[in-house]
Design goal:
The chain has a domain of 204 residues. With 379 residues, it is an alpha/beta fold. Strands 2-5-6-7-8-9-13 form a 7-stranded parallel sheet, with helices on one face. The chain has a 3-stranded antiparallel sheet with strand order 4-14-15. It has a 3-stranded antiparallel sheet with strand order 10-12-11.
């Protein structure tokens, strides 16, 4: 038993075969969509993550099976193979994102090996990709031959608080905070673009201004370039999961402060909009003062982001890629049709429908006619 009331167990890895397609876009639609086109790649079904984060939205899906209930974690064995097949058929590839629902470097060897094989596939096709993780085990990709010089990768590390005791309560099986910060420092020192996700900031619990400032100052010192933040939103099941976790710690008063900090808005429990706006504007100013850029994840529009960024991920190498005659991909733009298409009348990707197609249709990425278009590729 760890000090968060969660029994530590060894999770048995259960192999699955993914039957559908691998690459898919965010489901959010216009006009309220903020996220650019992405190619989401999941190594496991939703909720199959051993970090056991109490605030995880994927654990709230009605089809999500929680690993701690079975001591098992399910993962897909054929992602690298299916990704190879899909990339072979595509002439356009948005930046790939591992993963939107579970950590691809959770401490399960079978999942790690599948992720490493998938990384090698992405490198072979030379597509742009990034990894979002809470795990120091992402360092294993540095061991892949040629990876340290790969130009189309960046890392996002979630660091939801600088207080490791709060981390142990909110996310009991995840990597300690000091190890996450050291991992960001390591990747930045190797020349990779690094992003710190202070996400989620849970009002009433982890929104202490002094603690967040310590985290920002640490990020600036180790070479982080961009900060992404959200105050999250809860449905009734998510709020109950958080209450259950805190109750095990005898922290009913802390939960009450959280509950009082959120109010019903558009069917969700959210921090009231005025407070959200004040929080993000203040944090943006402090982030930019420290020489980094800032963006808000989903909950506010792009007017609350740094004006200098070309996409909400902040990275300059989050590219839409076009396949060459040699069979690998080269960048044509930053893939954010909403925010910064370089030429709306004649987009360099050759697919003007992407400006309004959210989520994109697979056939748009597979158009063979585009291979004859002559464009000036980004370096």
């Amino acid at each position: 038993m760890n000090n968060c009331g969660v029994k530590r167990v060894m999770f048995k890895a259960i192999p699955l075969i993914l039957q559908g397609r691998v690459i898919h876009d965010f489901s959010y639609r216009l006009p309220r969509r903020k996220c650019p086109h992405m190619g989401l790649v999941n190594m496991t079904p939703a909720g199959q993550c051993t970090h056991l984060c109490s605030y995880c939205y994927a654990r709230g899906y009605r089809w999500s099976v929680h690993p701690e209930k079975t001591n098992e974690v399910r993962y897909y064995t054929n992602i690298a193979q299916k990704l190879d097949e899909e990339l072979s058929q595509m002439s356009l590839c948005p930046p790939l994102y591992l993963s939107a629902t579970t950590d691809v470097f959770q401490p399960v060897d079978e999942i790690i090996q599948s992720t490493l094989a998938t990384t090698k596939t992405m490198m072979r096709f030379r597509v742009a990709f990034h990894i979002v993780t809470r795990s120091k085990l992402v360092r294993k990709i540095l061991e892949i031959p040629g990876f340290t010089s790969y130009p189309y990768f960046f890392l996002e590390m979630s660091v939801e608080t600088i207080d490791d005791e709060k981390r142990r309560i909110l996310s009991p099986n995840s990597t300690p905070i000091k190890d996450r910060i050291e991992t960001l420092r390591l990747f930045a020192s190797r020349g990779f673009y690094t992003v710190m996700r202070i996400d989620p900031v849970i009002f009433g619990y982890s929104n202490n201004q002094n603690e967040i400032m310590q985290l920002l100052e640490e990020a600036s010192k180790i070479g982080v370039k961009h900060i992404i933040t959200s105050t999250t939103r809860f449905d009734a099941q998510g709020m109950q999961a958080l209450r259950d976790r805190l109750s095990k710690e005898g922290m009913e008063k802390e939960f009450q402060r959280i509950k009082e900090s959120y109010a019903r808005e558009e069917g969700w429990l959210k921090v009231p909009r005025k407070k959200r706006e004040e929080f993000h504007l203040n944090l943006k100013a402090e982030t930019e003062r420290l020489g980094m850029t800032y963006s808000v994840c989903i909950e506010l529009d792009k007017s609350f982001d740094s004006t200098s960024i070309s996409n909400c991920e902040g990275s300059p190498n989050s590219y839409m890629m076009m396949k060459t005659k040699e069979g690998f991909f080269k960048p044509v733009c930053n893939a954010d049709c909403i925010r910064s298409c370089p030429n709306r009348k004649a987009p360099p990707c050759g697919a003007p429908q992407l400006e309004v197609q959210y989520p994109y249709e697979l056939k748009t990425l597979q158009s063979r006619a585009r291979s004859s278009i002559q464009v000036e590729l980004c370096p």
